[in-house]
Amino acid sequence: CKKSFLELQPKGEFLGSNFYANPSQALEGVVAAYDPLVTETGGIDNTYSDPLGALNAGSDDCVAGGGSSSDVNQWQVFNNYTLNPSVGPQDQFWAINFQGVNRADVLLQALPSVPGLSADLLKRYTGEALFLRAHYYFDLERLFKNVPLILTPLTTAQVYTVTQATPAAVYAQIEADLTTAVADLPPTVVAAEDGRVTQGAAKALLGKVYLYEQKWAQSAAILADVNGTTPGGTNSTYGYALLPNYGDIFDPKNKFNSESIFELVHSGTQNYTWSNWDQFKSNIYVQMVGPRSYGGPLYYSGGYGFNPVSTQLATAMKGDPRYPYTIANIDSLTKATNTTYSPSYQNTGYFIQKYAPLLKNVVTTGTIDLNWPNDYIEIRLADTYLMEAEALVNAGSNTARAQALLDAVRARVGLASVPVSLPNIYNERRLELATEGHRWFDLVRWGQAPTVLGFKGFTANKNEILPIPLNETTNGSKIKQNPGY
Amino acid sequence: SPLKAQDVLNKTVNMSLGNTTLLDVLNYLQKNNDVKFIYSKNAIDVSKTVTVNFENQSLKTVLDQVFKNNGIDYEVLKDRIVLGKNAENTVTVNNDGTVTIATGTTSAKAVAGIPVTGKVVDETGLPIIGASVVEKGTTNGITTDINGAFKLNVSGPQAVLEVQYIGYTTKDVTVGAQTSITITLVEAVKGLNEVVVVGYGTQKKAVVTGAISHVAASDVQDQQVTRVDDALQGRTSGVNVVQSSGAPGSAPAIRIRGITSINNSDPLYVIDGVVVDNGGIDNINPNDVESIDVLKDASAAIYGSRASNGVVLITTKKGKKGSAKVSYNGYVGYQNPVSKPQLTDATQYATLRNEAAANDARNQGNTYVPVFANPSSFGVGTNWQNEIFTNALIQNHNLSISGATDDANYYTSFGYLDQDGIVDPSISNYKKFTFTANTSYKAKKWLTIGENITYTYTHSQSSLNTNSVFGGPLSSALNLDPITPVIQTNPAGSPNPSDYANQYAVRNAQGQLYGISPYVGQEITNPLAYLQTQLGNYNYATNLLGNAFVEITPIKGLKIRSQISAKQAYYGSDSFTPLYYLNSSTSNLSNTSQYLANNRNFTWNIDNTATYTRSFGKHNFTALIGQSAQEESGSTLGGTFIGEPVNTFSQASPNFSLPAANTIANGSDNQPYHLASTFARLQYDYDGKYLFSGVIRHDGSSKFGSDNIYGTFPSAEAGYVISKEDWFPKESFVDFLKIRGSYGIVGNEMALNPFEYTSTIGSGHNYVFGNGQVLNIGYSPNAPANPNLKWEETKTADIGFDAIVLHNLNVTFDIYQKLTQGMLEPVQLPSYAGFATAPFANIGNMENKGVELELNYNDRIGDFRYSVGGNISYNHNEVTSLGDQIQYQKTGSLQGDNSYEIGRVTPGQPYGEFYGFEELGVFHSQAEIDAYKNKSGALIQPNAKPGDFKWADINGDGKIDANDRTFLGNPLPTFTYGVNFNASYHQYDIKLFGQGVWGNKIFQAYRRLDIPTANYPIAALNAWTPSNANSNYPALTVTDPTGSGDFTNPSNFYLQNGAYFRIKTLQLGYTLPTAWLKAADIQKVRFFISSNNLLTITGYKGYDPEVGIGNNNQFGVDMGIYPQARTFMAGLDITL
Predict the structure, then answer these.
(1) Which of A152, A198, B41, B792 could cross-link B824 (Cys pair, CB 3.0–4.6 Å)?
(2) pLDDT in tens, A271-281
(3) B5-85 CATH fold
(4) B positions 157-216 inside 8 Å of A (CB)
């Protein structure tokens, strides 16, 4: 036989040596770099994972819930702080974010030599890749603190030589990447490109990074670019404005609304079935938080009962206009309608409303459980208002603007002004952003986690970061386990 | 009826043989004219060269010319022609008792001495006609007459008579004082004449130099197996067959001489010379199998790159000379479950739930609130295992027609198997229909053409999700609480009325609601309700396996064979998901869906070989050269039809018109795969005494990059038949002794996926942009490239012997070593590398060492004939290296609770050895906890409470964490063995066959650890409580407040001894006496009753100790396997 008989071309995939050969393939690489943002099954063992579920379970907003005391155990152990290197939500966060880093690294390496790629597109795609890499590293840094800094794709030979970088080095890289991205990215995108990152998103993220680094002045300065000169106004540089009706923010019919700065996009139109595991771009978290065997109105009957809202949050929000948009009181609803539901583990009777599986969002094609269309707005204007206010108060400068920012957030839901102060800003963040995945990070960076989460079992100087997944620190790896684990 | 002498001699003969030997002439006449000759080698020199040329002559003419002219006389006795020396040369018995032998023209010479008379008989006592009796070292001899009698004058009492007859072992008898001697000749041991398939050819067992196990058709058929591979279990040494599921039609895992490689240790299957992929053996009807040969050592090198896991060669039946033979065999039987794990009943369950709650309350300092106020009110409750297990029918029918003439040879068979499962047979059953036609035609003296075709159709229902803790009837029956009723007659009064209120809660045919557990949820559901959701779903496969060949013999001894073969498979499934509500986690409330899949696979092979056989004196050669090419391709196509307006499988149809968005197609192509090879083999023996065989194969595979496309696989084998040496004592107890050895390098590329040598860019890394929710398809590298990928190689060495002792005892012994180097496997990189796909690499080495012994003894006592046999194999597997970077690989995991693996692949340990924590018993009191201190005096388990496990501090660091895990036991048996006993007495026969393993552990993991309320094993009744403080069964818990991990840690607590011995087959048969059948012209009628898996002796407390490979290549983890049934059947064999 001729040797050519043995030299074949793969079907349905490309050889690495032939790819990134034209602008559309470059764009396909960009898409792949976004993909880990919403991959809900991309953890180490490919089980279901969603960042919100873990972060809500770990905070005082919610408990873990579900079918039993060990259903989605990584959330259970975050809820009661029995997490250790072998059990916990770290497997999903670590693996997905490093996948994102790799996709961005591959892209940054390939982009400069893509034939026919215009200078403008090169700039934009580079900016997106840098933004995404910074985003993935920011999550890694604040969740794990001690992470390896990988800026070019690793060959198999290099993998086992990797060591952890200092947090300062990682933050420096995040700042550098975002600073370049701000310059490279377009101020806005056309409607068809909604969800792709913009200059505003990069500035908002950079401001948030500075805030975590307690670089108050830099944080306030760049967030002011995002928030505009008139808090509560409608003519900021990038067109961001608070929505008049708080509840509209989370409605899938209002995707990419004016309050949305960085939105993680889901689709309800893909007709996913259980055989599409690993491919879901729908929002499975919506399905997870619905009540079980629910017989009443408004909500889908077949939810999985995860992340019941804690009685602490329900109590804190009593009387707040945002309560009905934040918490679904299924207990009282079923009583009122003389219907029933099955209490899940740790049932409180309160459920998450912002991502609730509403009957009006039920799809007509595909498996309902797997095709919820709700997006997750990771950075929205009320958040950047409050972050800027917090930075200003901490910096001790321009208290008036800080007051205006806080007032704008409260005024939108019809609440009167309260004096701007760190406690009031902290409280506002909790109520405004409840169950949106910020609470746990906030408590940790404010140093309040040991006291506020002590009832759950939070241990100071240990649980501020997650353990590194057991198998990343053993078996030939040079990665060291985080202290306390 | 015997031919009359005159009839035989009138046969017409056509023959033209130049410069040939008398032996060839005899053989030609035997073969072509159906004449049987009897002669003594000592009396006739058959190597004498002659030339013959007859056209339409009578046999008498031929015999007169060829033999008489060469000084050989003949005589027709019944249907045989006895050759002897010419009258003038023949032994004459003189009146005085002396014997005269006249040799040629030499004048007769009287031999002085003593007269001896005697008789030569066979083992049954029948006279042997024409045996030669010669005084050793002289030409003084005679052939026995029609009564087997002889009379010979020998030189004296010291004379030795050498008695010979074709097909019998030569016997020497010292005359001594005897004057009348009866000499019994023993039939030469069959084993030595047995033909063994060695790949691209055959060899007589007597001269085979490789370690090759042979299984004959009779062994396969007597066992009444439904699959060919099941027939190998326990039959031969070195072949470990594990049937890990009793689901009808399930394939067993076969490991030849241990696990050869991490990633793929499946042997290569070759059916009638056609290499088939793993599933191919499913297609063969066991009744069509003539023999199975297993190449275990370097002899496998003839299959080069795919042979390192051993090669299983299956030869199907061909027609045998004679008129058409019609055979039927079949049986009808019923199967029943053998054993069920003991679980708690409803009262016990409720009591233990309360006990667990009390433990947790005590350990947390809370008030104890009983879960169940009155446990005994629940009575016995539901035994879910009794609900799913049932007796099930099996029937199997086979019909074959075969025969052969001088020019054509045919075998045609039909087979039908219909087997119900013993678990929910309405969704667990298997039907197989096979049709086979094997024919060949001798078109010319030098040309044979033929083909083998097998068509198979299988239809199976197997919606059971076995050996998985994630639902399915077996898992549910083991985990579901016994309180929940099968049928809920009072939903309103149940603890969970909202479950029953769901409109899709499943009902039985009478409209009653199936019980839904309020205590045990997730995938664990009422198995009878589950069954309703799976009704009708099935898989099918149509396989067509065929080959056609041409064999040309252009010159004597040279055979050129060209074969083209193909396997075409169509397979798929049809399933329907109705709307159902099994519990709050397991439901389909949105849309019905039907899934239809139709897939195809096609493989072709071309094999061309030339074989030349030649003898020079006592030097015998067979040389083979060959070439082979193969291509595999395949594709799958499936469609999902969502929202059909029906709710049962029987009504579902894709004919319903649906919106386009609800009709979803999916498909895939198999990656292309080509293989091209050349090979050569030389077999040589000197007088059947000194044996040698050498193989070299050169393979090219598209799975490798251009640097490493080709691999070369050599082997050499040598043998020495010591018993053929002149000096070897003839009268010793050893009749035959051959020592043999082999060494070779064989390869394995089956483990490797295509295109792993390069970096591929895969799609499916998608993201949604825009308000229109448009899915954008993203591309990125799947895994880093590895251009250095090369063949995995196994260096295999074997030393052994074959012996026949005491005439009747066959012994085969082997000792071997296999070193696998550069094992091909996917290497899971640390996640920080950022690749979701594991790239392949040549990583690590593995060693298997072992000893094998096979014994078979046949004898008879009067009319009682029997054979006893056994084999035992010892194999030690050890991973010797995993490269420089990693220390271990993980195999298997527990469900969801933690990332602890169950087993590890670690250098210095057997493959997949169980790994976890070591419990040292339970802390019986606080004092024991306080006494368990580390070096600095601190408590090792400060959070423990009495009733928790005391964990061994393996690394001695004074605390218990992930670093305290250790090796707990070997999942692989060190010994595997089989025994068989066959006997017959007149019309009756009995067959007994058993098989077992020893030295392995089983990890029992079928209880859902993430559902603490799952039903308990009966042993939990002895769990630690303050009033049962001496127990070593840990205290039950729901939330594990002490964080002890007693139940969630993988530990030796879950390990059990996996040894077992099982009587696989016990069969009693009765054959009708031939005399009764003569009138009806029927050859044979035999009735039998038989049982499979009659008895299993084991200490394992699960369904079945035969637990094979599970997820992640982990052996010996029982997650709720489908147990094998005990079968009783009655059957019939008829040959017309």
Answers:
(1) B792
(2) 888 888 888 99
(3) Phage tail protein beta-alpha-beta fold (3.55.50)
(4) none
